[in-house]
TrEMBL record:
One of its GO terms (molecular function) is iron-sulfur cluster binding. SUPFAM superfamilies: Actin-like ATPase domain (SSF53067). Keywords: Iron, Iron-sulfur, Metal-binding. Residues 4-243 form the ATPase BadF/BadG/BcrA/BcrD type domain. The keyword Metal-binding applies. This is Putative CoA-substrate-specific enzyme activase. InterPro entries: ATPase_BadF, ATPase_NBD, CoA_E_activase_dom, Dehydratase_Activator_Redct.
């Protein structure tokens, strides 16, 4: 058995491989650290016996929380390596751009001839992350699915900081701007922040991963800016843990 684990800020994604069969699971991050981490006086271990894991199970972990604890029974790899392998095997392609938008950061990886040619990350600003999308939905009192459907007449959002962007949303509501237009503006503004990361590679085969990839409105805006039909890879939010299985 092999386990791939993506320790995200909101959810922990788990890929369980038994032979050729792979299952995916998702757990709340707080629940995971309370219930799936075994601590002794000298070691900290991941305990996924609930999924059938034992002392012979190969565990590889990545994600935002990979450096928070030093797990004695897990191989830890970078998010770039995990997402690269996940996309490489999901797409079957050897040259492409991968856009991954996580809860705390966003990253773009350029793969050429089957290897990582270059990558760029935005982990300094939350305004182009899943966390900002969730906060925007809370302010607008809509679901993520409802937000994904909003693409018409996007209102211009100028703030580049997540905190100021949220204040700007409240201001638009106060002005009486329709929620649909504000939601479209949220999708358009994130695409606008991601586009410069893609543009530098000048390649037209682009894939999207991460939970935010399921936001069709954002993907539509980003596709228009990149002049490319961006494809969402299979099981996009599990790409990181899936990629861990290849180490």
């Amino acid at each position: 058995m092999k386990l791939g684990i993506d320790l995200g800020s909101r959810f922990v994604k788990i890929a369980v491989q038994n032979g050729e069969n792979i299952d995916f699971h998702r757990e709340d991050t707080v629940f995971f650290y309370k219930n799936r981490v075994k601590r002794t006086e000298s070691t900290i271990e991941i305990d996924l016996s609930a999924y059938g894991a034992d002392e012979n199970t190969i565990i590889t972990a990545t994600g935002y929380g990979r450096n928070m604890l030093s797990f004695a029974n897990a191989n830890v790899i970078s998010e770039i390596k995990a997402h690269y392998q996940g996309a490489l095997h999901s797409t079957g392609e050897d040259e492409f751009i991968l856009v991954d938008v996580g809860g705390q950061d966003s990253k773009v990886i350029y793969v050429r001839e089957g290897y990582i040619e270059d990558f760029v990350m935005n982990d300094k600003c939350a305004a182009s992350t899943g966390r900002f999308l969730e906060n925007a939905c809370r302010i607008l009192d809509i679901s993520l699915d409802e937000l994904a459907a909003m693409t018409e007449n996007p209102v211009k959002l100028n703030s580049t900081c997540a905190v100021f962007s949220e204040s700007e949303l409240v201001g638009k509501i106060a002005e009486g701007v329709p929620t649909e237009h504000i939601g479209a503006g949220v999708n358009e503004s994130i695409a606008r922040r991601l586009f410069p990361l893609i543009r530098k590679y000048r390649h037209k085969k682009i894939y999207a991963a991460g939970g935010v990839a399921e936001n069709s409105g954002l993907i539509r805006f980003l596709s228009e800016m990149a002049e490319s039909d961006i494809q969402v890879i299979k099981n996009p939010q599990y790409n990181g843990c899936y990629g861990c299985l290849w180490y």
